[in-house]
Amino acid sequence: MSNISKMNTVTLNDPVTVDGNPVSEITLRKPTSGELRGLSLVDILRMETTAMLNLLPRITQPPLNAAQLGALDPADFTDLAGKTVLFFAKKQQLEGQLLEMQATA
After folding, report:
1. How far apart, in whole angstroms, are the C-alpha atoms of residue 83 and residue 32?
2. What is the model's pTM?
3. Beta strands 60-61 and 21-28, pairing class
């Protein structure tokens, strides 16, 4: 798995139930501009809870609804929100961050 793929995945502290099955790993995919319709980009970048509760059901795999997201451990929700914000950085910025993180690790 590449570093970029790892950045798109969140391992939950507490599994969530989806279709009767426990799920402990959620993958995020980059939203399209159309999926951002009706949302404030500023609120998303600030990781505002309501904006994230509206956006995350559109980009999580498996799909999580607002009730499932609302029941998540706050650390898991924050991890999902934080990784979502990374989709709004340019590829070159992310690559630079990965190189810097690897160099200091």
Report:
1. 16
2. 0.80
3. antiparallel
pLDDT digit string, tens, across residues 42-99: 999 999 999 999 999 999 999 999 999 999 999 999 999 999 998 988 777 666 655 5
Three-state secondary structure call for residue 23 = strand
Task: Calculate the CA 88 to chain-centre distance.
Answer: 11
Q: What are phi and psi of 25, to 5 degrees?
A: -135, 130
CA dihedral angle for residue 3, residue 68, residue 66, residue 54, rounded to 10 degrees: -10
Cβ-proximal residues to 25 (8 Å cutoff; 6+ apart), any chain? 9, 10, 11, 12
Domain layout of the chain by residue ranges: 3-104
